[in-house]
């Protein structure tokens, strides 16, 4: 197995409240060609875990633990070295696509930006590569001169995907990239991501709170609850034989065959005491 990212004992806490763990003792491992989904309710620490990999946590937060990417401990790198990794070796699609695109720049320019910065592409070669990327994500390359507000939500999300994979990263982090989309568009975007993951042999870390999405694309699943990983394993194991009561409660919220949602109370004494 080709491990690409290894996180050991990740803690995240506010600088002014060191005892209040937002992420606590989280460890995980990602491999090339595999999709790992992080699931968990709102506020469980999913986005913070993703941001800590990129060293993009807000300055009020502190982290401890080791984040090793391709054998390199990222905490040891300078900010400049880290910038060379972001967007080049690790791509990220953020939770809010509408706020991540710049409304006054064309989508072609924005997709070309990482190619200029990291690969020094310019002129005709740059234009050609942008056209290729647009085609890859299913947008007509003649749309390169469009502005974000001339596109649909699904198309904007495809632009975000094109930007994130422009430099063929080894790891792609996608934080709820389909939440804002309607169901059919969501299915198309998921299929696209899955296909790109295979073609580029990336590791994908996919954050969602939707078990339907998990069943669709995950190889492995990590379940987070109040900052802790309470369960992790292959998708079939976690979905078919969940061990932790929180996972069972989450699964019970998924609509059954008749579309009935069964909600279960979640108990906060499930966690190990602090
Ligand atoms: N800058 C910050 N300062 C203090 N607390 C923060 C900060 N950023 C996030 N938090 C808290 O950390 C916890 C985890 O946040 P995180 O964004 O990782 O949740 P999430 O699992 O991604 O939730 P969602 O599904 O809603 O996106 C939340 O309780 C949040 O309020
Ligand atoms: Mg989040």
Automatic annotation (TrEMBL):
Topology within the bilayer: Peripheral membrane protein
Compartment(s): Cell inner membrane
Primary location: membrane
Entry annotated with the keyword Disulfide bond: no
InterPro entries in the cross-refs: AAA+_ATPase, ABC_Ni/Peptide_Import, ABC_transporter-like_ATP-bd, ABC_transporter-like_CS, Oligopep_ABC_C, P-loop_NTPase
One Pfam family this sequence matches: oligo_HPY
Gene3D superfamilies per UniProt: P-loop containing nucleotide triphosphate hydrolases
One Gene Ontology term of the molecular function aspect: ATP binding
Domain ABC transporter: from-to ranges: 7-251
Keywords of this entry: ATP-binding, Cell inner membrane, Cell membrane, Membrane, Nucleotide-binding, Translocase, Transport
Leader sequence residues: none
Family classification: Belongs to the ABC transporter superfamily.
Protein name, UniProt field: ATP-binding cassette domain-containing protein
The organism's taxonomic lineage, starting at the top: Bacteria, Pseudomonadati, Pseudomonadota, Betaproteobacteria, Nitrosomonadales
